[in-house]
Amino acid sequence: MTIERARRHLPEWMEKFRYEGPVGEGPAGWTVEVVEPDPLLQLQYTVQGRHPGDGPFYVLRHDGSLWMSDTDAEIRDHVSPVVEANRAGSEARVLIHGLGMGLVTAAMLRQGAEHVDVVEIDGDLIDWMGPWLTDVADLYGGTVEFHQANVFEMKWPSGSRWHVVWHDIWPEMSEGNLPDMHWLHRSFGRRCVWQGSWGRERIEYERNRSGGWW
Predict the structure, then answer these.
(1) Most exposed among 59, 105, 142, 194, judged by the fewest C-beta atoms under 10 Å?
(2) Within its chain, how far is the Cα of 207 from the centroid?
(3) CA torsion, points 149, 154, 157, 161, in degrees to nearest 10?
(4) DSSP letter at 121?
């Protein structure tokens, strides 16, 4: 089964996240693979209450370590910022911390964001993923700008503001991510209408419910 056929049943909003980037070996240890859902992956997501879907999936790895995928669960994790950008309309300006496979960037552009800034520390990943996202921007009439920088050190010009800011710089959900999330939310609270961090609500819920992260 091709990925295209496997995705036909998904709601239209999930289609905005479809991956059309490079596949295979990339620079500096980056790879994108097409994989079928194996029992270990199914178990990992099921334990977290996050069903991955039927697959196959695109999986981004760095030096063999899982960094991101386009499972149904991960796409649903990233719906909120795209919905918020959609509410802002055709003039939406978006800031994304962390490039990954570019799924959120592509979704923002496909739903009509006017401009998307992406801050990514790895220049090789920008060079690899950037061309397909630039093509998406051109196709949908928006613009995308990539900034190679550490999100904690990036200096923005005075008055820089966005409708939506999305923080996604962590390879896995962990309670240890919360201090970074809290710092970022304080730093950008006055610079945006809405902001969010990947997995924050779920991490905080599990911590408060059980006294720890799973």
Answers:
(1) 194
(2) 23
(3) 100
(4) S
Give Cα separations from 51 to 4, 76, 159 (angstroms): 19, 10, 41
The domains located in the chain, with CATH, are: 3-75 (no CATH), 77-205 (3.40.50.150)
CB 50 within 8 A of CB 78: no
Compute the chain's Rg from CA coordinates: 17
Return phi, psi of residue 72, to 5°. Answer: -55, -40
Q: pTM of the full predicted structure? A: 0.89
**Residue 46 tokens, joined:** 């099921």
141, two tokens: 């009439």
pLDDT of residue 44: 66
State the amino acid at position 135 in one-letter form. Answer: D
Placement of tokens 């697959």 in the chain: 55
